[in-house]
Amino acid sequence: ARPRVVVVGAGFGGATCAKYLRRWGPALDVTLIEPNERFVSCPISNWVLGGLRSMDDITHGYGGLARHGITLIRDSVVAIDPDTRTLRTAQGLQIGYERLVLAPGVELLTDSVRGFADAEAAGRVVHAWKAGAQTALLRRQLEAMPDGGTFIVSIPAAPYRCPPGPYERACLVAHYFKQRKPRSKIIVLDANPDIVSKKPLFTDAWNTLYPGMIDYRPNSPALVVDAAKMTVSTDFEDVRGDVLNIVPRQRAAAVCDLVGARNDGNKTWCTVDFATFESTAAPGVHIIGDSMASPLPRSGHMATNQAKVCAGAIVDLLADRAPDPAPVIANTCYSATSDSTAGYVAHVYRLVPGKGYVAAPEGGATTTGDARNFRYAASWAKNIWAEMLS
Ligand code: FAD
Q1: Hey, is 123 helix, strand or coil?
Q2: Which of 157, 225, 300, 363 could cross-link with 12 by S-S, CB 3.0 to 4.6 Å?
Q3: Cα of 207 to ligand 1 centre, how many Å?
Q4: Ligand 1 atom with the shortest distance to the CA of 331
Q5: CA-to-CA distance for 77 and 72, rounded, in angstroms?
Q6: What ipTM did this prediction achieve?
């Protein structure tokens, strides 16, 4: 029988890994398991909130993966037995594997902000940190907000998915307010002591494009949200808003816990061998993307690069060859600051034994947004969606 590799989660990491497993290991039987019918992209979802793009623009079908000979199963994995190398899905399928790849993204810790889980269940307050129905709901809330209203976005302590994402969100909501509700305000409650990523880009945008509109408050973790009073409370104050957006703390997705892979110091993220992305807790199980423990930024671009290193290593391991001990991965991350300006950071990392992935010194970043990078940002998204889904 052909060796079977099962990939869990068809997001940036999983879809890319499945594709490259088949491309580099044409003899492999590759099964990809994902509950969602269509892929909704987190990158560019802030553009939807700002009115630059629609939900349709960030929603893509999985049909393109079929031509690679991948078996796509629409289901969720609910149990894994690493001893017998079999897993079970919510619909009761039992599937065996030689190697398993978990690329399940993050679990949002809604209980980390008191009152948030109830407010979310009632459809009053969303995180919109997984693109989909909550993105559309937050956009509708912003559209319904009167001119002169206040939008509050709270940012958890790092590490979390997409370090620059909340600050880009503040920019693009400000862009929308500037066009349509210019008397409105944005309060950014940041649990971190300072802007976590691309600080020069965002402070320049806030000062020059949206002067006086964005009130940035560092060291202000959201502790309680009250959807009746429409307040977010920190240690020092209760802040009232008209639209509340809580981005809670995060950890590796729940499926990782089925094999005891959330094994870093805080039992939050999954530690791996960086050359193969094999879990240090569960032999034969590889973990890529946001669930993995590392100081690398959690981005879609990173997840696709890790996916390729992992796919190559699995093809080697199944053929009894030693995987590349020093793989190279890259990250490029664009953030839009308006409907016509964006900036970026870009780094190349090489695995140095004993040190992890080390950034090459010539990485770059922009300090101000410009039109050329806005066009590049739009192209980046189209290219990465094509890379993972077709
Ligand atoms: P995901 O893409 O989340 O995929 C995980 C998949 O696993 C999901 O489809 C899920 O349904 C599935 N899954 C989970 N559990 C199971 C299970 N038990 N069984 C089966 N399937 C399961 N990154 C960039 O590179 N550039 C950007 O500009 C950018 N902007 C962003 C903006 C925002 C607002 C946000 C929130 C994120 C942004 N990101 C960006 C980050 C990026 O979205 C993530 O880093 C990326 O999605 C991680 O990929 P992943 O494969 O680990 O997880």
Answers
A1: coil
A2: 300
A3: 31
A4: 25
A5: 13
A6: 0.99
**Tokens standing for residue 190:** 């940041």
How confident is the prediction for the chain on average, in pLDDT? 97
Distance from Cα 289 to the centre of ligand 1, integer Å? 8
Angle, helix 371-389 to helix 12-24, in steps of 10 degrees: 60
Chain segment 125-169, per-residue pLDDT in tens: 999 999 999 999 999 999 999 999 999 999 999 999 999 999 999
Cβ of residue 141 lying under 6 Å from some atom of ligand 1: no
The CA angle 292-45-55, to the nearest 5 degrees, is 130
Task: For tokens 């060291």, name the residue.
Answer: 219
Integer Cα distance of 335 and 62 in angstroms: 26
Assign 73 a pLDDT band (cuts: 50, 70, 90): very high
Q: What is the pLDDT of residue 250?
A: 98
Q: Residue 384 and residue 200: Cα distance in Å, rounded?
A: 26
Beta bridge partners of 245: 126, 153
Pairing, β 243-246 against β 250-252: unpaired
Rounded to whole angstroms, how far apart are CA atoms 54 and 39? 14
Residue 172, amino acid: L
Alpha carbon 280 to its chain centroid, in Å, reads 23
CA of 251 to the centre of ligand 1 (A): 13
83 vs 77: CA distance, rounded Å: 16
For ligand 1, the distance from its centroid to the CA atom of residue 181, given in whole angstroms, is 31
Position 362 scores a pLDDT of: 86
Q: How far apart are CA 106 and CA 29, in angstroms?
A: 27
- Locate the ligand 1 atom nearest the alpha carbon of residue 289 and give its number: 52
Among 77, 161, 376, residue to substitute to test ligand 1 (most atoms within 8 Å of Cβ) = 161
Q: What is the mean pLDDT of residues 100-123?
A: 97
